[in-house]
Write a structure and sequence with these properties.
The protein is an alpha/beta fold. The chain has two domains: 37 residues, no CATH class; 217 residues, Rossmann fold, CATH 3.40.50.300. 50% of the residues lie in helices and 13% in strands. A seven-stranded parallel β-sheet has the order 3-2-4-1-5-6-7, sandwiched between helices. Helix 10 links the parallel strand 6 and strand 7. The radius of gyration is 21 Å and the shape is globular. The chain binds guanosine-5'-diphosphate and magnesium ion. Guanosine-5'-diphosphate (GDP) binds next to helix 4 and helix 5.
Length: 309
């Protein structure tokens, strides 16, 4: 049985089989101290790897888009890793299966590593697991790390915080700008893509989004709005260019913004770890009588909390 340190060492050579084992260690929280010693390039400065988050409603075409981005990056000789995060439910393995199939043509390519993370069988928060997996892939030398996740609630926004550049994928059917704003997507988007532009309504949504972006603060990055059809491979290159421009901005004028985001992510990771530890301790210290009283509605969860030191 190799130790966690052995597994990580071999994973850092980029061997997919060992990467897979290392990610499993991270998921099961069995590699804490070893992870701390990883040489994460992005902790020092933005640039390499470029971590790109792709979020948006289910069915918007995120996985199809990711597949196209993989193709472009491979053509440039970059090594690409994809982390497909499914926070929606422990039972939605089907969605991830769909993602897998859409990216399948890359599975024979040793320059591409695809891994899915779901809440199933997870001890801790998905956003902290995602952040640690991205750190591993960074240290393993990937040039481009794509993180795909469904964007709906606050916890999902935590997943996307790991990215340097967040691409929000919408469709003419995803509703209007007001809904986008409500979902918090307007604040996190560095690039907007109105996908499925082969269908009617894309230009209208793009115009609406542009107007909302223009109303934002002056001194920060203004998210470009693109229309695309991932299915027909149209508009993908322009989005890649936008993402590259955004990364350049992060290295220059936007460095303070980038640093703040990276710092926020570090604090979030710490708080997630604290919460996980507290939860594990509370579980192992839970007296059978207290559990019984909770189950019998004789003791309220709040009252039980007050009994903790
Ligand atoms: N018409 C059209 N369909 C698309 C486009 N991009 C993706 N799709 C389809 O939309 C469905 C959902 O795509 P998928 O990439 O799995 O979406 P995800 O849930 O956001 O990852 C699939 O049937 C795709 O073939 C597009 O640009 N135009
Ligand atoms: Mg998908």
């Amino acid at each position: 049985m190799p130790t966690a340190a052995d597994v990580l060492k071999r994973a850092l050579n980029g061997e997919r089989r060992w990467l897979a084992r290392a990610v499993t260690l991270i998921e099961h929280r069995r590699a804490g101290a070893e992870l701390a010693s990883l040489s994460v390039r992005r902790h020092r400065a933005p640039g390499v790897p470029h971590v790109v988050g792709i979020t948006g409603p289910p069915g918007a075409g995120k996985s199809t888009f990711v597949d196209r981005l993989i193709g472009h990056a491979r053509a440039k000789g970059q090594r690409v890793a994809v982390v497909a995060v499914d926070p929606s439910s422990p039972f939605s393995g089907g969605a991830i299966l769909g993602d897998r199939i859409r990216m399948e043509r890359h599975t024979g390519d040793s320059g591409v590593y695809v891994r899915s993370l779901s809440s199933r069988g997870h001890l801790g928060g998905l956003s902290s697991a995602t952040a640690e997996v991205v750190n591993l892939l960074d240290a393993a030398g990937f040039d481009l790390i794509l993180v795909e996740t469904v964007g709906v609630g606050q916890s999902e926004l935590g997943v996307i915080e790991v990215a340097d550049t967040a691409i929000v994928v919408l469709t003419p059917e995803s509703g209007d700008t007001v809904q986008t704003m409500k979902a918090g997507l307007l604040e996190i988007a560095d690039v907007f893509v109105v996908n499925k532009a082969d269908r009617p309504g894309a230009d209208r949504l793009a115009r609406e989004l542009s107007r909302s972006v223009e109303m934002g603060p002056d001194d920060e990055w203004r998210a470009p709005v693109r229309t695309a059809s991932a299915l027909e491979r149209k508009g993908v290159e322009a989005v890649l260019e936008d993402a590259a421009n955004h990364l350049q901005w992060c290295c220059g004028d936007g460095k303070a913004v980038w640093r703040r985001r990276r710092g926020d992510a570090q604090v979030r990771l710490f708080l997630d770890l604290v919460a996980e530890r507290a939860r594990a301790q509370a579980l192992s210290n839970l007296e059978p009588e207290v559990a019984a009283a909770l189950r019998g509605f004789e003791l309220s969860p709040h009252a039980a909390l007050e009994t903790l030191s």
